[in-house]
Amino acid sequence: MNSAGGQFLSIANAATVLQMLLYPDRPGSLLTHFSMDRSMQPVHDFEEDNWTQVGHIWKIVKARDSHGRARKIYWKLSNVGGYHTVMAIYPGTSYGVALLMAGRYSDAAELAYEIFGSFQRAIDAALAEKARALYAGRWESEDKESSAEITIENGMLFIENLRLNGTKVLPLFGAAVKVALRPTERRDELRLDIGIPAVNGKPHYGCMTYWNVQDDWGLRNGVPINLLYFTGEKDSRQLHYPSVDVVMRLTA
Description:
about 250 residues; alpha+beta; six-stranded antiparallel sheet; about 35% strand
């Protein structure tokens, strides 16, 4: 009774749906973040290939970005009555692919996979350039007692040579050279990804349940001691380390 195999939509309509899936808070969205987060939880891992999962409504596969990291693609596929449809999202870098086909060739999923592989290189490069413009460089306080260097390697932000009020800080966290910076999901706010100290010289990962809101290093001035954030635009950009009341400006 459904000769079109459920393909009663256009690419424009599919793009609207993908935007809603990627950003449930957008005006007119029929979804909430809660319902979207629930739907994206995997319910079964195919451990034999370490590559595929099944979700509540999704098929989940992985694709490597241009830095070699495996990132998840969530997609829905339809192959009915000569019509072949895929709608897929790549939450890690917030874009999606919609592909509507008809005819003898039926592997729309493979084409979508190739599209992600082609686009990802350009997106990774754009993200790295944006991060470099916002965060990278040498930062220093007005009294010269505090400084930091932020670099980008393989698409990730790192901080090194962190000195606060005259004290070299990274060795106190058990990191001799540099540590990664991870986002808190608040704009321009990051944390030193330090986990908890090594035990008997071995890494100790501790609890990961609340990775985005909790660390084991405690608070000072009412904020985590591994938190930093940025304010301002372009030449007025500032780096704030609130637990020690330090403000730095970009010097190079």
